[in-house]
Amino acid sequence: MKKRQTIKYIVFDTLSAMVAWASLFLFRKLVLEHTAFHDAAGVFSDTNFWTGLVAVPLGWLSLYTIMGTYRGVLRKARLKEFLDTLGATLIGVVVLFFLLLIDDATTTYWYYYSTFLFLLVVHFVLTYACRVVITSQTVRRVHSRRLGFPTLMIGCGGKALQTYLDLENQETYSGNLFVGYIAAEDGVAGGGKLDGIMPMLGGPGDLRRIVEEKGVEEVIIALEEEQRGRIAPLLRTLNTCGDLIIKITPEARDIIMGTVKQDSIFHSPFIIINNRLMSEWQYSVKRLADIVLSLVAMVVLSPVYLVTAIIVKATSPGPVFYAQERIGYHGRPFRMHKFRSMYVDAEQMGPALSKDNDPRITPFGRFMRKVRLDEIPQFWNVLRGTMSIVGPRPERQFYIDQIVRRAPEYLLLQRVKPGITSWGQVKYGYASNVDEMVERLRYDLLYIDNMSLTTDIKIMIYTAKIIVQGRGK
């Protein structure tokens, strides 16, 4: 359903952009240049017309993708759709005007003003008209209960029951299709007030499995007052389960403090946890920058790759590259690649972290670590999308289990893709034991709290400085 809805938006956005572009050409010929109708037909022999008919819609689709238009297509609100379409249209028309239209020969500025306003109005009206029809159809399907979003309830007491009844009896159905509930603690066999209404699926220890098996999109935490202390560990687990919508039933003090958000004046009030740490356009630009910079780095550094590979092979027997399983975005394992900096079978006695004067590290490996040379094969991981250039360093599950026992907040790092460099790497460097990993954690948590494109740029600048000065730990 979600894929089909996205295709609808893309098709109608493309058609709207093509019609708006064609209309602009005819408007300039017939109205601004006062060309006779039969002569205006000559516009169809203009190569600029046909080039624009292909290139301009592609440009619009790129802009919409960057702005996150095609994300959450089944949950769009018509007012937000209006504002988002208006903002995107204004940005796109300004770009088109200065790239393609401002060079048109004319004797009056009125020609420019008319061209700009015509394209702005026509493109917006056509695009929004199509979108509002698609969105309205989806909204009607939700309100008529023909479309719902798989929802998990956490809690089984009076608060959970009242929340369920409020959602079921509200004036406009919000689309919550409950797949079941879990208790706030493990080991509860049942007996909750939701029994007979929805199935009990387990406890907090089963959260990740349930989310994956049931395709859960939304989680509602409705705990009793004495259970509120369990919310923090629940959120830490949920933050590793994907881009879920997480809602918490509020207490009176939450409403007074203004932490309660509502999607609609007709819907029940909730504290809504936002899992998106940056705006959609920043996520898009970050991913685009990852792809471009990785490609450039792999091409520019190709001689470095070759020379490094030769030296690694010549100074120590064994393979040039070293691949190891690490835990990445949302707790998913992946293979991270590096130039081998240790002797073969360095960990035959089990996992161990590197330390100062570590005898397992080759002489050339020690130099590579100083200047971060061993990390450059990870641009391949970035290109594939399992890593980003900037993000917390990924660890092995063996060490994550130890860190989480001491600092459960480590799981919050899995809300973002791991990176080649990070604020923790810049400020702390490699960790040689779990104590140092926990110490480095506070820098990476600080990065997540302040995550932005500006922060990424600063970290890359600091990393470059460390590489040039050879201060890598």
Summarize the structure.
This protein is α/β, with parallel strands linked by helices. It has 17 helices and ten strands.
Task: Please tell me about this protein's structure.
With 473 residues, the chain is α/β, with parallel strands linked by helices. It has three domains: 2-143, no CATH class; 149-273, NAD(P)-binding Rossmann-like Domain (Rossmann fold, 3-Layer(aba) Sandwich), CATH 3.40.50.720; 280-469, no CATH class. The protein has 17 helices and ten strands. It has helices at residues 2-32, 37-40, 47-66, 78-101, 109-143, 158-169, 207-214, 231-238, 252-257, 280-300, 302-315, 363-370, 379-384, 397-406, 423-427, 434-449, 453-469; strands spanning 149-154, 176-182, 200-202, 218-221, 245-248, 271-273, 321-327, 333-339, 388-390, 419-421. Strands 3-2-1-4-5-6 form a six-stranded mixed sheet, with helices on both faces. A two-stranded antiparallel sheet has the order 7-8. A two-stranded parallel sheet has the order 9-10. β4 (218-221), α8 and β5 form a beta-alpha-beta unit. α1 packs across α3. The longest helix has 35 residues, at 109-143. The chain is flat. The two termini are 50 Å apart. Mean pLDDT is 85; it is low at 252-260.
